[in-house]
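Open question from group meeting: does this chain pack into something compact, or does most of it stay loose? Before anyone orders reagents, we agreed to write out a predicted structure and look at it together. Recording both the input and the output here so the notebook holds the full record.
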Amino acid sequence: MNVTIRRVTAPEDVKTLAALADEIWHQHFTPIIGEQQVNYMLDWFQDEEAMTRQLQEGMIYQMAYADGEPIGYCGCKPEEDRLFLSKLYVKKAFRSLGVGRMLFDSACGFGRGKRAVYLTVNKHNDNTIAIYKKMGFTVIDSVVTDIGNGFVMDDYIMEKSLP
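Structure tokens returned:
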């Protein structure tokens, strides 16, 4: 399997990214938060319009491809002293093959000179939490964020020092 990572810049890339997000989110998050909240969150911040706006506001999106097929993506945003890893998702068939780690390492390149990388993760996303802990992340806070329409994001904030 030949995996490449490319930065998302063109409108057609954003369209591909939104379709990939839709596929991965429905597969992964529906058992955790339910289909209604998945649909709401995808419409709220993972559709073409939202991602285009995020790119304009400084979010950096990258997609991983295996032999030309999009298989995962990440989004990060450099902040004053930390890098915010907003999104890191890989299609189920390509998990445990190092693709997520490749995306993570690539994203961390945008955090040069920052003291740490941090992220939010749903408190019930047990496998993902375990992976982040294995990578050296620690839970530094717990937050419940009202995202409207009767939905909340119930997350841990995890952080890892950067070299």
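Observations to bring back to the group:
The chain has a mean pLDDT of 95.
The beta strands are 3-7, 60-66, 69-78, 82-90, 116-122, 138-148, 151-161.
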